[in-house]
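Incident log, support desk, overnight shift.

02:14 A customer reports that sequence design results differ from what the structure should imply. Their input is reproduced verbatim below. On-call engineer (initials T.W.) acknowledged and began investigating.
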């Protein structure tokens, strides 16, 4: 598969050095994820509805903690992709998740401000 890293013995390497750019992207991902969970919980608490169908299903099944579970599950996928892929693709995964998370937080904040 493209992007896999292997040692001389042919074993798959899942170890990655944390570059400066990845450190910044991880900080954005983690902070935006936390703000997403908090703004979603606050919005639900004041009567706003969840716009994401998958998140609505998690909330219906697990209640408010479902938001945290969904975000944690997404972060696990990002961690696995980041560890597995080559640097260029790992950066793309982190960047994409960071952008989407920041946009979601901005939309959540705008919805909260409009109430």
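02:41 Re-run completed on a clean worker. Output:
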């Amino acid at each position: 598969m493209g992007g896999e890293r292997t040692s001389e013995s042919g074993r798959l390497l899942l170890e990655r050095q944390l570059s400066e750019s990845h450190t910044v992207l991880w900080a954005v991902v983690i902070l935006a994820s936390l703000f997403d969970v908090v703004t979603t919980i606050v919005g639900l608490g004041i009567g706003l509805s969840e716009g994401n169908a998958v998140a609505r299903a998690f909330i219906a099944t697990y209640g408010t903690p479902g938001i945290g579970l969904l975000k944690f599950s997404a972060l696990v996928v990002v961690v696995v992709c980041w560890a597995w892929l080559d640097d260029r693709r790992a950066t793309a995964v982190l960047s994409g998740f960071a952008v989407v998370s920041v946009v979601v937080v901005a939309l959540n904040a705008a919805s909260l401000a409009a109430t």
